[in-house]
Every structure is written in C-alpha cells, then in structure tokens.
Amino acid sequence: MADRSFEGPRRRGWMGALVPVAAALALLAPAAAQAQDGTITGVVTDAAGQRPIASVQVHLVGTSLGTLSRDNGRYIILNVPAGDYTLRAERIGYGSVEMQLTVAAGGTVEQDLTLSQQVLGLDEIVVTGTAGAARRREVGNSVTQLNIEEEIVGPPQNVDALLQGRVPGMSVTQSSASSGGGAMIRLRGNVSMTQSNQPLIYVDGVRVRSEGFAKNVPPVGYSGRSNNDVSSPLNSIAPQDIERIEVIKGAAATTLYGTEASAGVIQIFTKRGNVGQATWTGQVNQGVARNLPFGPDPSLRPPSENPTSLSGGRSDFLFINPWLRGRKPMCDDPIVVEGQPCDSGLFSDMGAWQQDYAMSVGGGAETVRYFVSTTFGNDDGVLPNDNEKKLVLRGNFTFSPREDLQLQWNTSYTNGRLGHTAAGNNAHGMTLNTFRRDRNYLNDESFNAINPFLNQEITTQLDHLITGLTATWSPLANFSNRLSVGYDLAQQDNRNLRPFGFIRAPAGIIATSRYEFNTLTVDYVGSVDVALPRGIQSAFSFGGQSITERIEETTAYGEDFPGPGDPDVDNAGTTLGFEDRTRVVTAGFFVEGKFDFSNKYFVTAGVRVDGNSAFGSDFGLQTYPKISGSYIISDEDFWNESWGSMKLRAAWGQAGRAPGAFDAVRTFNAAGWGGVPAFLPSNVGNAEIGPETTAELEAGLEASMIDDRLTVDFTWFSQNTFDALFSVRQVPSLGFTGSQLANVGELANSGLELGLNYTVVRNDSWSWDLGGTLSLTDSEIISLGGAPEFSIGGYGWVIEGQPAPVIRAYRISNPDAHEDPIVVQDSVFGPNQPTTIAGMHTTFGLPGGITLAARAEYQGGAWMSNGAQAAATRRSVRWAGCFEAYNIWETQGYTALTAEERGRCDVQHYRSDFSIQPSDFFKIREVSLQAPLPDSWAAMMSASRASVTFSGRNFFRWVDPAMRTLDPEVGGNVGYNTRVRSMLEHVPPPAFYTFSLQVVF
Amino acid sequence: MTNNGTRKILILPVALVALLAACDTEVVNPGRVQEEFLFETAAQEAIVKGIGRGVSEAHNWIGYTSAAISREVHPSGSTGSFGIQVEWQNGELDYETIGTHWNLSQRARWWGDDGIAKINETGAEDQKLLGEAYLWAGYAYRLLGENFCNSVIDGGPAGNRSVYYDRAIAHFEQAAALTTGDMATAAVAARASVKAFRGDWAGAVSDASGIPDNFQFVLPYHDGFGNPTLNRIQFASQAEPYKAHTQKFTKYEEYSLSENNPNGDPRVPYRVTDETGDAAVQCCGQVPWWPQDKYQDSGDDIPLSKGAEMRLIEAEAMLNAGDWQGATAKINALRAAAGTFAIEPENITEAWRALKFERGVVLWLEGRRLGDFYRWNRDNTPGGRHPLETPSGSQDVGSHLVQQDLCFPIARSEVDTNENIDGPTG
Q1: Radius of gyration of chain A (CA)
Q2: Of A171, A540, A992, B31, which shows the fewest CB atoms inside 10 Å?
C-alpha cells in the first residue's frame, strides 16, 4: 500500500518557514537591556493557600519591563534602571495588586506578592453579548468564560476537544474517526428544525464561518463516495494561541448579533502578549490515538462463527481492526497474509501517531504589544489513509499611537492538508465493506480483497485566513468608538480520485473541487457614558453591522482514464464542470442603554434591526429587542459578609435565523436532458418568508460562599421560537415535490443549568477541587401552524406536542415475548437530542506543583437510529451486533428468540425502524497529570521553566447496553452538519494519549 | 473640546451607523431559474424537454420497482439507493415506501399540463414543439393509469384511475394532430395501448393497425453527462456497485437466451456469471448474479411504444373475440421475426397463457408488466401467468413473493398533505 501522506518538498518548506518566522520573532523581541542597573525579584503566592502562582504578569507600570512568574511562583525582572516604580501583578481570576518600590543602581529588590482569588469575578470584563465591554456584575445573562491557562491542563487536539464537556448546556459531538473531522456543537439543544443550530463563531471580534467545510465528494453519482465527514472552521484556531473563550447560549444574550444568532455565540480571544520582555514558549506534544472496542466481544459469537474474519478482524471492532492503527492482529497469527500490516510486539502498533509542535513569543511595551506564534501538527488517523498536517501562523499586534487611540490587528493563517479513507455509507468504502464481511460488495472478506479500497485518494487542502483590524478611538473621556473590519477567507481544494483499475470503478473517476467561503464583516460600535441625576450612571451604545457571506464552488469531474498513471481531470474520457455561487448580505443597526444604580443594580435594554437578502421581497426588516438586569445582592447592607457574594440576574431577548438564499423565490432547475436544456420544477417560493425568531427568558444566580470555597452558577431558561421555519410539505399532485420553508411553526425549549465548584482542600502543598455541571433540557413543538407533520431524516419528525425533533417509527410492542414481533406504527421513542448532560471534574494540586485533573461527561435521554445495523440486516448480513441473538438461535432454537431479537436480527421480520436505540453514554473526557520540571532541568534547556503533561482523552466509555455496536457520537454521511443524529458505517472517534513538554524562555 | 469639535466627533459615528444600516441587501444569485423567465418563447424548448425528462425520471422508478413486483427480475441483495427494498422483494407496495414513485409521476403529470399552459399563455412558437409537449404529458398520464390504483389531480380528491386514461387519450390526440413522423405515430400507438388498457378493443385495434411492425418510439436515458437520467434497471444490475437483481429464479431463467441456453429467446437475454448478488436475500441467501442483458448501458433508452406491442394488442382483441387461432398466428409471426420457436396452443386458455407470456417477453423491462397483471386480473381473463410470477408459484424456489400488489397506492406524501384525501387508499 502506498503511503498517502504528504511529504517531500512541502514538508521541508514548512519547516523552512519556521526559520524566518523565528528570526522575525527575535527581531520583535525587545533588545536586551542596555544598562543592567538593578533587579526586582520575588515570589507570587495565593492569599488563601499560600501556594505559588504561575503565569502572573508582573510588570513596572509605564515601562516595557515585566515578566511572568514561573510554576514555583518566582519572578525576576532584570535590567531595571534605578528609580521609583509601581510594580503591578495581574492574573485572570485574581485581583490585581500594586506596590511602590525603589530600585537602587545595581541593587536587587526582593518583593513578594500575594494575590487574592476573585472566585466570582464580578469585576472581570466580558465582551460577548454586550455592545462594548461590561463588567460581569453588569451582565444580566449567563456568560461562560473559559480562561485557558487557568482551566486547561492537558493539551487538547483542537478547539472542539477543548470545549468538550466543559460548558453547562453545551454538547460537543465528533461524529467519526476521520482525520480533521469537526464536531457538532449544540447550546441548549435545538432552536431550529430546518436551519443550522451550530452557534456563531467570532475570533477576536471577527465573524468566521461556523458551518462545516464542504464534504469531499464527486458531484456525479452517489453522494457518499467520500470519507463522509467534514472539517470545522473552529479547528483552524490553534488551542495554544487562545487566551479565553466566551460562550453565550441563547437569544437573551445574543440579541445584538441579530439574525443568525439564535443558536448562541462562541467568541474566541487569542493572546495579545504582555507588557514586558519577550516570553518565548515552546511546546512539543507526542501521542497516539487508538480505538476502544465498538462491537460485541468475540466470546459472544454463535457456534457457526469463527473467532475472527478471514482477514483477522474481530467482532469487537466490527472486523475492521486489521486496518486500524493500534488494533492490528499479531504477526504470528496464521491468518495474517503476506504483506498485511500486523502487530509484531511492543511499540510496533501502539496507535496512530500524533505529533504537534508549537512556538510562540509575546511581549511589548505600553504602546506596542505583540504575540506571534506558529504551530505545526502531523497527526495520523486510526484509518490507514488518514492524516492531518496543519500549520498555523498567527500575528497579533496592538498599537497605541495616541492616548485616545488603539489599533489592534490580529491575523491567523492556517494551512491544513488532510488525507482520508473512504468511510460511511459507501459501497466503495473501507468501513462498509469490512463491517458487512463476506456479504459486502465483493462477497469476500479477505484482506487482499478489501485492501484495494485504500487506493481511493481523498485529499483536502484548506487555507484559512482570518484577519481583523479594530480601531478604538476615545476622543472624550466618556465617549468611545470601535470600528472593526474583519475578513474570513477559507479556500478548500478537494481531490477525490478512484484511479484506473480501482476495484469498484475500473475505468477510474476523479473530481477536483475548489471552494471559497468568505465573510466580510464591518462593525461599528459607539458608546457614551452619561451621568444621570440621583447618581445613576448610564452608558448608551449604538452601532451598525454589515456581513456579506459568499460561497463559490467550481468542480471539475472526469471518468474513464485511458490507462494507469497519476491522472488529472484532463486525462478522463468524459469531463464535466459544475459551478455554484451564493451571496447573502445582512445589514443592521442597534442601540443599547445600560443603567447602573449604586454599582449594585443594573438594567440594560436594547434593540437590533436587521435586513437580509434571503428575506422574501414582501417581508421587510426584522426587529429584535432585549432587556436584562442584574442585582448584586451581596452588596446590600443586610448581607452578612460570611455568606459570601451573590449576583442575581435575569434577561429576556430575541435573536433570529434567516432562511436559505433561494427559499424566497419560485425556481426551476435547469436539469438538462441528454445535452439539451430542460427545466424541472424546483422550489415553490415564498415572498413573505422571513427569519424565525427565538425569544428567550433566562434567570439565575452566581454565588460564592463558604470562604469562597464553593461557587454556584445556576440558570433557568425558557426559549420560544416563533415564526419558526418549517419545511411545509407540498402536495405532490400540485407538481412541486419538495418542501417549502414557511414561517408557520412554533417550538419551545426550556431547562436549567447548574455549575458547582467546591474547594475541598487548599493549603501550602495540597489542593483538591471538585465540581460538576448539570443541564436539563426539554423541547417541544408547540405548533405546526396547520402544516402537516414532516420528517427531517433519520426517523426525526416534527410533530406537535413532541420533542424537537422526536424519533418516531414502527416499534415492536412485545419486545420480550418469545414470539414474532407485533408492530405498532408511528410510535414515539423520544427526543433525538440529549435531555440530560452532566459533567464531573476534579483537580488535585500535589506537592511540587504537580496537578492531576480529570473530567467526565454523561449524556442521556436521546434516541437515534443505527443505520449501519439496519442496512446490514436488510441485506441478511451476519451483523456482529446480532451475535448474541444468533447464539441463542443456534443453540436454543428460533423459539428462544424474543420478538425484539427477531425484529432486529431476522430479516424475515426486518424493518429498519427496529434499529432505533437509546444513546445514553458516559465518557471520561480527560485525565491529565502535569508536573513542573526542576529549575535545574529547565536551566539545562536555557529555559526559565518547563513542565510535562501526560493526558488521556475519551479512553473510557459506557453506553446503553441496547447499543451493541458503534458509538452514540457516531454520525451519518453528512458529517456533523446534521439536524438528526443517526449512525452510519463509521469508525468511532478514538481515544487519545498524549505526552507534552512545555518550555518557557 | 469646543462644541464645534464635539459635533465633528459625533458626526463620524452617526455617519458610520447610517452607512452600515443602509447597506443594500438586494441580491440575485445565479443558478436556479426564476419562474418569470419561463414565459419567454426562448424557454419553450427547455420546458418541453423538461416535461420529457420528468416522464423519464418517473418511468425509471416505476419501471424498476414494478419489474421486481412482477418478477421480471429477482432481487439479489441490495436494498438501498438502486436496490429493491425488502417490502418490494416481498411483493408489497406500501404507501410509505413508494413516495418517490408517486411524487415523480405526479410531477411529470403536473409539469406536462403546467408547461403546456405556459406555452399556450406565451404563444407557441413551434406547433410541433407544442405537440411534443402533449406527447410527453400523455405518456405521463399513461404511466399513472397503468400503474396507480387511484387518480389524484392537482390536489383534488382521490378518483378512479380511468381519469388518467381519459386525459392520456386527450393528450395523445393533440400530439397526433400537432406533430409529424415518429412522434405522430407514437401518439397513435400510445393511444392504442391506453384504449386497450381501458377495454376499448375496437378503438385500440383501430389505432394499432396503422403502426408498422418495426416501429419503435423510446424514452431517452443518458449516462455520463451532467445530471444524467440513468436507466435504473441497467444501472442496478451492473457489477459495480450494485448487482441488485438477477434473472435467477425468474421465468426467464430457463427460457431466455443465455450461456446456459444458446437457443433461448433473444428478446430477453441475460448473462450467466459465477458471482452472487451484492448481499443476500431472506428467501434465498446469496443469489447467483445473472444480470439482464437487454440494457447494456445505463444510457440505454426504454421503449415506450412499438409495433410488436400493437400486434399483441390485435392478438388480444382476437382472444377477447374468441379467435384464439388468429391470435396464435399473430404471436407466432412476432416470434418468427425474433428468430425463436413457434408456440402451439391447443385451446383458448392456452392461447391466453401464451399471449400473457409473449407480452412479458415483448415488453420485458419496459415498465408495463404490472399494469398487464392488473387489467388481466380486473377482466378475469383466462390462462394463468407463469408460476414464478405469482406468490403461489414461488413456494419452493426463489421468487418468494409473500404477496403481490398489482398497483401503486396513493403515497403517504399525498395523503398527509392533500386535505381532500382522508386516509390511505388503494
């Protein structure tokens, strides 16, 4: 098998690129101090436990001198000219402190610093969901803030993995083992039945594409000749570059984002560099990925089955393990044939190698700050052709040329190269043809028969540029203006080749597609602070925003190559071209007023008005109002200080989701008919179509108590989406067979979210934090507006009075009886989205600065179809998930089978509906152990500090016993961009085991 | 700051907000064609070809599924995209599983009428082109009439399927009047088949008699070009990827021209391979894959009307009149022309059986067999069908029809959306 990884000159080019980058970084670093006049040193400790605190920014106010504290809390500022200074120490999650001190020429000042934790962080600044920035105490809605250095221990593979299991009310689901595959993200469940529920993504204030990239599949023939998963733009961001992430979950918080924001907003803030000398950070991650079993143990097989397939495949991996990195059969197994990859012993088949390297430098002075970084990863997937190479370059620069003007320019460029193995529901795919064994499309399960499926080349190159320039001008003390121009440009180059002689397409087929996704955002916000009578402080904000999104695709397709070789489309006997272009424009403006009563009571009210090119010609503009309030009850005189601190909050607001670019107009397809033009009816059209609008009311509290050892974050929410865009099925005898979107429906979501953190122990040497999150969500279709019930695929239905969506299908009413199935039509199983998500986490601080952190997640209440099982059973495949039933059948006779077993495993009673299963699961998302290296070891590397981390992710799983194969997070053929979760023939996402070394210079 | 300066400072943000809010959100995206353009004469040819394409898409689904139900082909595994669903393998046409068949057939019918209305409203630039539109629309109605249990027109209530016959005949009359050459001949031949279906044998024979023996009018299919209309029967029987059906366990297994039977009837050819179907079927496990060889390319056209069918209409009219010897002569003339042996029925029942067999051969895989089954059953004609075409004849061999629905019901997609239909019918 040829190695399909990218190699050669390009790799050297990337590595070569690091050299000038490093040189540029060195130039940016402030030159070594010219005069070594003095030194300031000391230790930064936590006021509560007297534990040393790392990564505290310690700097001299008004100078460019500063540093970060090490893991042992020690800091040192060299080359300080003699004089008087204000020394300031700052770290997220702590209150800042300032000290006045004097440095004598050539002297050393020893100054220890003690910081107090701000557990509730009422004066932390949040920016997401507010017109400008706001202190947390002023914000009436729930905002989750993840401070990455503070909260993340192990190195995550990507941003999806970073978010998984951390935010109450958020589910992050990766749908396959495919390299670079993105994750479906849901905040508080679904707010739309027909439009995207993926939250909007902003990076440093720049709107970026939030939907997945395009699937790599030819435009002709079956739409599944692919790896059948897609990448996420979110993962263009290197986790190492992120300073913090803010998440707002519903319309009450996202009103100012207007149309498209009803599913929530995730805003990522990257590092900007700290005042002081250049801080270089290098990181090396090495690890492996390997799958947990996802099928029944071979010991459950019926007597007629051999322990393995002819290729050495086992039922616990649905017989694909001979091709899975880390799970191959032993080389001394006689079933292994010549040329077959195998496990020869220790270290020969540990898993898919993951290697990532990162380097960054940050620093600057009061007027200029910078953060420049580069990250390179070369990660194999568990499937043979899977690999992701990713290079990320970032440069963030902050200039303050005048006291009243700040310019911030943040740019990242990501180059990703992906190689994939054909998977999913795909007759030309590796996974389907191994899962179905000798009843596959070859009628042959041997290694040499199936292995040629790897000759399909599915490669993707992604170039993603995100750049934004923000100018903040404050001409008056009470008046500021922020103008941002952001541009998100992603270019995707897909190549999908089944070469001449390919086992299922002997003449060969090729498709190359070029996509361009770009989003141009122009955003202005002005804020005026006004003092009102009776001591009321107020701030009025106003602004406008224009967002233009373009998607352009051109595809060349060819089939029938003249012979072997490395072809391009030109070589094909038949060639075709395809083009698709859409542009959607949103423009709007808003005003917001914020009122502060005694720094204790806060009220915010605002409104946004939007127009959108996808609205119908008769629709006009859409208005989204909002109002919120917060109350710092712990600032009241009656509040006993020993009770801790508490904020009560409530918010109500609206946000929307626009229809698709063509939904408003009545159209006909130019279908063609044998080379002559031909029209066919396409879309009925709806001139009155507008956005669906979600109104949300949420209320909750944030509190810290028991000497700040316990923090509580509680939110209740109720969402109501009205004028919901439902797919109104058309009467087929009226000619248009598809559905037409119309603003006819109404659906509701309600639930609660609880986050708890408790510090069990905190002293000089030890600490133990324990916490959990719980989110409960219920959804319901309130009204179909007179439209008929409609399916959204995968047995997901939209039905009045049922969850949104609900799984409805035929059900066996006598599952446990030893008789043939009795079938009930149109039976409701339950929701397709989880109704309960519970997270658990704990962190131990051990002597020597060692940290042990663990995190787990449970999701329950959802139902989904196992399409891989259904497709196999209806073809009379001996499906591994039925081994238990076959065993009973063969050893005790057919009469011993229950109705459920007969319906699920005997094609005589088959219905695909019988593959619907509960999808409850529990996973350990992460266990990480981080330890600082001794200073002497760091010094050997000329570093100021160094640490190592061992982490394992998703290495333990429990699933509902009814789900006998695959994994509840596995998806279908469209990757994570699906409205209904259902499983097809994919290898589940693997577990990751990573060792990381981080060095700070 | 002076008042003047402050005013200047404030003008800038106000101007910016106004600029952003005033952005033009009017966008026309290329690609799909808006309806207004279809009222231009330049669009008329594409409308007519679109009507034809609509018929070809509908016929593609009806033809394949009805071939499975009537056991012109036997399932050999695949149940997905180009496969035969388990319900169809069992002979069941459930109203939930035939949505695509209904939707495409109704779209073809509606688009025929709507397209003709658009052309007439704009003013037909070419009468022959208008006639072609009537011809395709007529075939859409014939497809519905021969295969669906009930009629529904434009969101109305369920009615008798004869509504389709009447409309088909009216359209074919218009087509015959407006076109010339093969299209005009096809219109008359198609009208003959509809008249025969409704039992107007005199009218059918009158129309059929003018059609030459070697006449054939086809429904075009296309492969390899953008958005092709693949011949589903051929595509699904290919080695790659589907091998979804076989001639094993059909009446053609021992009768047709094949490697096993070099003297078989060349009109119903198939190939013998040592492979099995792409999966397995409940009745028979992994079934030998002996694919049909009538359509050798997924761009092969499917005949809609031909002279041989006309001769069989004439023969059937004779049987209805009791002239079984005359009918036998008609049949044997066809068989001789095809280069196969003559049949020798000894009574009218055997002659009916021979005619039913012969129609199966002449119209094999052309989407007509299920309609024939329906009308013979409706008219209680003598002479049974081959055992492998019936549930009762398949107990110890492969066909394994649990039941055999003889027409497609109104689909759930119509039942759920059409307020004039109360519930499942058919």
Answers
A1: 29
A2: B31
